[in-house]
Design goal:
By secondary structure, the chain is mainly alpha-helical. Among the domains are: about 110 residues; about 140 residues, 3-Layer(aba) Sandwich (Rossmann fold). It is about 70% helix and about 5% strand. It has 15 helices and five strands. It has a five-stranded parallel beta sheet with strand order 3-2-1-4-5, with helices on both faces. Helix 14 links the parallel strand 4 and strand 5. Helix 3 packs across helix 6 and helix 11 crosses helix 12.
Length: about 450
């Protein structure tokens, strides 16, 4: 009996044909036992598996456990003994659980183990086939239902197609009728258009003839009007030239007269002040003028060498200060571009003019100036010399144009310009003095 069981348990064909359920049951039995067996009964290849938990041994070491059960009769006998000693019910070939009974028969080497394995495999295959059959039947039923639905949808779609086709044919017929009507209307319209075009051509020809006559008449009238306009323009230009000449002459006389009056008034005021300062007992004398031990500074005249003297000059009535523009800017801030130099100086002079009330004119060389500024700050007259004319000559002309007796200050460090304007009665001021005065504005 033992020999038969050993032979059945070691039959590789039985082990190779085991269903998955039986293999899982045998792996569970071996996994439970290998953790409790003495180390000497555990094969070398299973000692690492024996250290796992029973669930982990059955899951991760199933292949190794089944291989040892098949190949090692000693390990298989040790497992059988352990289960018989601890739980003989687990190895009952007559158990109601077919999978458990088959696994026990294979492990115990029962003679009918191969038959049981074949029967269980056949049952499993039949169960699989039944399941596949049930699945196929359910799928067929579902497909039949879907086919019925598709047939119903197809019938509805065919009905809709028939309706749409009938409606389309009716619409096509209506469109054909309308097209015939529009064709007739189009032919009538074409005939009317051709008749209208002929009439329009006749009217166009008549209008062209009238237009040519009107153009000829208009050209003759325009020529007469041009001649009259030319004569009127010449008469108007002559009258305007006469009026402009008279106006300029009158304005020049008025300006010179006003400047002369202001100059005379300033000269009288200065003369009174000088007479009062120079004669202790003369006309205009005041008690404070009789105090001894102190003297009054004499009024400045000629060249000016400090900002205080420049302020006294700018305080004179109707004073006119003429500035040599680039001579001042290239002395004070030569590192700037010429346009920036001009802009900075003009704005500083505007501030000085607003404080002193003096008339200020600044002259720049016009050579190389691309665009002459059209707007300047209030209180400053900005002049650019014409092509071929030096700014120095413009400054001399400005001084010469002033009436004799009006105080004129010329700011320049050019010795030739300073000497020439000084000889004409102006007060030359070095550029550095003006820059110092502008620094306090």
């Amino acid at each position: 009996m033992t020999a038969q069981r050993t032979g059945a348990a070691g039959d590789e064909s039985v082990w190779d044909a085991l269903p998955d359920t039986v293999r899982g049951r045998l792996a569970e039995l071996a996994a439970k036992a290998v953790g409790e067996l003495p180390k000497v009964d555990v094969p070398q290849r299973l000692r690492a598996v024996a250290r796992f938990t029973p669930a982990k041994r059955a899951r991760r070491g199933a292949h190794a456990l089944l291989t040892e059960l098949r190949d090692s009769s000693a390990f298989r006998s040790a497992v059988v003994r352990w289960w018989q000693d601890n739980n003989s019910d687990a190895l009952d070939p007559n158990a109601e659980d077919t999978v458990a009974a088959t696994a026990a028969a294979v492990l115990l080497g029962e003679p009918d183990a191969a038959e049981r394995v074949g029967l269980l495999a056949e049952r499993a295959e039949q169960a699989t086939l039944r399941e596949q059959r049930d699945t196929a039947i359910a799928r067929v039923a579902r497909l039949e239902t879907e086919m019925q639905e598709l047939r119903a949808k197809l019938a509805d779609a065919q009905d809709a197609v028939h309706r749409v086709r009938a409606e389309r044919e009716a619409e096509v017929e209506r469109l054909r009728g309308r097209l015939r009507e529009q064709g007739k209307s189009l032919r009538d319209a074409r005939d009317a258009a051709e008749a209208g075009e002929s009439a329009a051509e006749r009217v166009r020809a008549e209008l062209a003839a009238d237009l040519d006559a009107l153009r000829a008449e208009r050209d003759a009238e325009r020529e007469r009007a041009e001649q009259e306009r030319g004569r009127a323009e010449r008469a108007r230009a002559d009258a305007e030239v006469a009026r402009q000449s008279a106006r300029e002459a009158r304005q020049a006389d008025e300006v010179r007269l006003a400047l002369l009056v202001d100059t005379v008034d300033g000269a009288i005021t200065g003369l009174r002040r000088e007479l009062a300062l120079g004669s202790p007992s003369g006309i205009g004398s005041r008690p404070a003028d009789q105090v001894r031990g102190a003297s009054i500074a004499a009024s400045a005249s000629g060249r000016v060498d400090d900002p205080v003297a420049l302020d006294r000059l700018l305080a004179l009535p109707s004073v006119h200060m003429v500035v040599d523009g680039y001579n001042v800017t290239k002395t004070g801030y030569p590192e700037l571009a010429l346009a920036d130099q001009r802009d900075r100086l003009v704005h500083q002079l505007a501030a000085l003019a607003s404080r002193t009330g003096a008339e200020v004119t600044v002259v720049f060389d016009g050579a190389g100036v691309v665009a002459v500024p059209t707007a300047t700050p209030k209180g400053v007259r900005v002049l650019f010399s014409d092509p071929g004319v030096l700014a120095d000559d413009v400054i001399r002309a400005l001084v010469a144009a002033e009436p004799e007796g009006r105080p004129v200050v010329v700011v320049t460090s050019d010795r030739a310009v300073a000497d020439s304007v000084w000889r004409r009665g102006a007060h030359p001021v070095p550029s550095a003095v003006l820059l110092t005065r502008l620094g306090r504005v």
